[in-house]
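In this supplementary section we document a worked example of the pipeline. Step one takes a protein sequence of length 440 as its only input; no multiple sequence alignment statistics are reported here. Step two produces a three-dimensional model, which step three serialises into structure tokens for compact storage. The input and output of this example are shown verbatim.
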Amino acid sequence: MKAIQKILLGALCASPILLFAFSDGPVTQRTGAPADGGLDCSACHRGATVNDGRGALRILVQPYVPGVRQTITVRLEHPEAQRWGFQLTARLESDQTKPAGVLHPNDEVKVRCGAAPGTDGPCGAGVAQFAEHIRTSTGAGTGTGRSWTFDWTPPETNVGPVVFYAAGNAANNNNNNQGDFIYTNNVTTSPNAAGGPRPAITRGGVADAFNYQTTFANNSWITIVGTNLAPATRTWEDAIQGDQLPTTLSGVQVKVNNKLAPIYFISPTQINALAPTDDAVGDVNVVVTTAAGDSEALVIRRAANAPAFFAPFAQGGRLFVTAVATGSGTTYLGKVGTDPRVTRAARRGETIQLYGSGFGAVTPVVTAERLFQGAPALNTAPTIRLGESVLTIAGNGNLVGPGLYQFNVTIPASAATGDLPLVATVGGVSSPNTVFLTVE
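The serialised model returned by step three reads:
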């Protein structure tokens, strides 16, 4: 920290108004971390003795599994204090100017970002994070000690040892900066030993996630089934950085034709991933990697087009489409009794929204690894048949999200009713004939 910054922060600490506000949390960079100038709470609490031996500050953290959220406890004790506060930061041991993982706020702990005075989280990539008490968690009038428990998600990959720095104020509850006791501590945690069995993909355990066909394309979602595929169950929530989709979750990676795939969901027995952007056509290898090593490669066919409709529920050997009534946003259509969101069948003469994956190239070009703006249009419109009818499509169809195409189609007034086969053809490739849409 520059000398002028220290002087300015010292002046802020002398302000009685700010001192009272410390019950809502101190300014940032007060954990004693050397990379932050080594400052702790004594910078603002004048005359306080640091680590006098009468009290203690403890940090309880376990060895980490990359990307797997865990709980941290900070415990502050003193025989005479009547109010309590803390601040903690996590840093890479290899470069302590860099944050390590993500600290999560809760009802008793907030997270602030960057240099003093800091801003409230969530914090951007590479920005220092500080977990600290809030006013209601200071335990005013409570003796002996106080604990705070909150979550920390380690970095998605093995970054080596992580150091936690913390400072605590065991205060006398007189609402000024005199007569308080300051304690600091730091602990280092390391990655959990790898060990354990390697991931294994079940024979035939890679397929298009919408219709379970053994061919996929760009903008196709794929499902991988097997054993020991991940150390935990989670989605990519909290793992998207800006517009970058995660290619590692909890230390798990998926490579398709040696390219990292964005991962939406992991569990010990299933992974859902988005096919990475690639021009390859033909047989390609799929490999799952965890801390225990690589799976044996499984071969799957990659094509220029592999159309598949969103049909998440099966009944009697048939997959049933879930559609949306155009303009409603919330009225789901399909076969009642399959998808619990479905309230009615589609109707003759009605315009509905169908969704799918693997329908081919769009303009402007987008890559699978990033979120995008707008709704790029398909270069080639598919032919969509419902029973004996060819549906009218508004435009060519659009890519509206990662691996998700939308088609606004009108059901002919002359269409048959009941469970009708729904088949799309694009580039000479057709979607499976096991998919049905219910019409009334």
